[in-house]
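Deliverable D4.2, example record:
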Amino acid sequence: MTPRELINRLSRGDASLRAACASAYGPHPELIETACTRLWALARHYADTFSADDTIVVVRAPGRVNVIGEHTDYNGLPVMPMAISRDVLVMAARAADVCVEISNVEGTFEPRAFHLERHIPPFAPGDWGNYVKSAMQGLIDHWGSADGLSGLRMAISGNVPIASGLSSSAAFTIACALALLTVHNRTLDPLLFADVMAQSDHYVGMASGGMDQAASILGRAGACLKIDFFPLRVQPVQLPPSTAVVVCHSRVKAAKAGNARDEYNRRVVECRLATAVLHAAAPASAREPQLLSQWLAWDTNGIDDALARINATLHPEPYRLPELARILALSEETLRATLCTTKTGICCNEPPDGFQLLKRARHVITETRRVEAALAVLTAMPPDAARRFGELMNQSHVSCRDDYAISCPELEELVSAARDAGAYGARLTGAGFGGCTVNLVPADAAPQFIAAVNRAYYAPKQFDHLPDNQFIFAPASGAGVLVA
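Output generated by the structure prediction step:
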């Protein structure tokens, strides 16, 4: 199909295109209409930018909201997110050479171009084009070569709020990778695709754990996913009946290209240091764990024992490099080069307030317990499931705030407003340091909830009443092809 043909078919209300949108977004007329409008704008932009007669494909990848299980994935421990109906669309066609050209429909970002090669040099740090390069480099690394690949012409449209904690960057990267696969008639098993994309995140300096990519690729319409790692596996889970998930944006951007990335990577390092110190204190296994999940499996008798060991072994005062080097029998230079350096090669220097090992390890292990408790509630689905699940969300937020220190005053205001407005549970979601809260509310009271939070949070700050301030999500399907 060409952009010209797509525009004509959309103008006629083509039933097969509407059916494709319904398959992706569910039987929600407003979402189908929005998707068709975006497809028309995408085709028009592609035609104006490149050609109306190229043979194109259109792929999509959704953002995600994490309902419970925060900062556990890069520790190898479970999470419970869901794919959302906000996504990134990419219209792409094969180029005559190996050049990749990208253009943003919304005009938010300047056009970019680069060549496919075995090792793709990055743009300047923070440049949006690096996410496209990340996608291509991840696939090329998986294949071991760029041989046989042609370039792409790509028009991109996204409606996942940027720097909101809803994984706009993962959706963008996955959509670009799926475009490359589809144009070249190549496929990857979805579980493998999720793993490859998680590894590609290191290109942009993030030591992520794979939740975002798994949720976006493996999402199921109508269900959350309980995701476990090593090996990656997913279990669809239904939310309590007669509930809705409402996301509220703090309007504080947590850009992963800036300070938020450094704070995120610092916590990855703190968890790794905590793992090493805990293992050194009582090595039940000859193997040295790299992740808290491995320490939990190899050196402890379960979560209760792990928490007891954390409280007995790690002191509440900040750890400094000389003390850590002494405990681990390493030179400070070796410690910096190994445990304090991320997979991307970024060294996390000792922060002014030291490394907070006790709090970070305690959060990860108690959050793991909460995810498992949430699964038990949603599997049994007792009459008070919404209340019990909401209370686990509330406990998660407290731990994220107090032990993981990833909240901010605006998120605290939003959580307080949500609970006052009748939410069963309210918590920050995503990396933190800004972004969004996720709220479980009675479905029939969702409009009143939104109005109450607007009065309590947005109106006093004189924020514009934007559609991205608050929105209701139903779990959506994972990444896929809309037009081929």
